Amino acid sequence: MQTKTIAILASIALIFLGSCKGEPKQVADPGSIENTAPKKDTVSLDISEELPKEQSFVLNEDNAIDFFFNYADTLSQDKVRLTTSMGSFTIQLYDKVPYHKANFIYLSRKGYFDNTQFHRVVKNFIIQGGNSDDKATSQKRREIGRYLLPPDARKGFKHHRGTISMPSSERDNPHKLASPYEFFIVVTKPGSYHLDGNYTPFGRVIEGMDVVDAINNVRVGDGDWPYQSVWIKKAEVF
C-alpha cells in the first residue's frame, strides 16, 4: 500500500514539472541599440536633454572697477612678453596704476591679445595694437565684456619713449575713459609728452625696443593700417 502511494505521488510530481516547461527565453543581442523599459521603482535619466551650461562671468561698466580692484590684489607678476610676427618684446607694468595693470594682465591670461594685430602705425610717434578686423576678435570681446576704464594720469608717469599707454574709447567720451582692449607704445625720442594728462601710461618696454621700432617702420596705407599685417601671436604673463 505504501509503495503504491509513493508511485502515485511521483507521477503527480512529473506531471507538474512538465507543465512548467515552456519555450526557452531569448537572450538579448549585446549589439542591439534597442532600449528596454525601466523596471518598476527605478529612476532613469534622460540623457537626451542637455544639461544647462554654467553661466560665464562677463565684465560690464557696473562691475569692472570692483573686479579689477580685487583682481589687482591677487597679482604677483608684473611683466608681459608679446611675441609678434616680427619678434618679441617685454613690457613691465606699473604697480601704481592698478586698474590698467590688472586689465592688461587679465586680458593676456584670457588669450585676448593672441592673434590680434598692430592695426595703427604712425611713423615716429606710436604703434597701436589689440584689434583686428576678423570675427574672432569681436567674439572674444563679447565673451569678456563691454566696459571702459577711468583715466589714471596723476601718478607722475609720462609718455617717454617705450611707454605703453591706453587710448580713449571712440564712444562719446568727454572724460577720456580708456578703451580696455587696445594699447599704444610711444616710439618718439625722447617721448610724446603732449599726451601727458590725457592718457594713462601703465608700463614701459624693458626689452626688445628694436622690435617696436621695426614695427613702426613698416609700410602703411590709409588710416595708418600696415599693408602687411603685423600679428601679436601670443601674450605671456610672468
Q: Give me the secondary-structure category.
A: alpha+beta
Tally of separate helices: 5
**What integer is the average pLDDT?**
82
- This entry's quaternary arrangement is single chain
Helical percent range?
Answer: 10-25%
Beta-strand residue percentage: 15-25%
Q: Identify the overall geometry.
A: globular
- What order do the strands of the largest sheet run in, or round the barrel if closed? 1-2-7-5-6-4-3-8
CATH superfamily: Cyclophilin-like
Q: Any idea how many domains?
A: 1
Q: Can you tell me about this structure?
A:
By secondary structure, the protein is of the alpha+beta class. It has helices at residues 2-20, 64-72, 98-109, 135-144, 209-216; strands at residues 79-84, 87-93, 116-122, 126-131, 163-166, 183-186, 200-207, 231-237. It has a single domain (64-237), classed as Cyclophilin-like (Cyclophilin, Beta Barrel). An 8-stranded antiparallel barrel has the order 1-2-7-5-6-4-3-8. Helix 2 packs across helix 3 (98-109).
Provide a quick synopsis of the model:
The chain is of the alpha+beta class.
What is the topological layout?
Elements: H1 2-20, H2 64-72, E1 79-84, E2 87-93, H3 98-109, E3 116-122, E4 126-131, H4 135-144, E5 163-166, E6 183-186, E7 200-207, H5 209-216, E8 231-237
Helix pairs in contact: 2-3
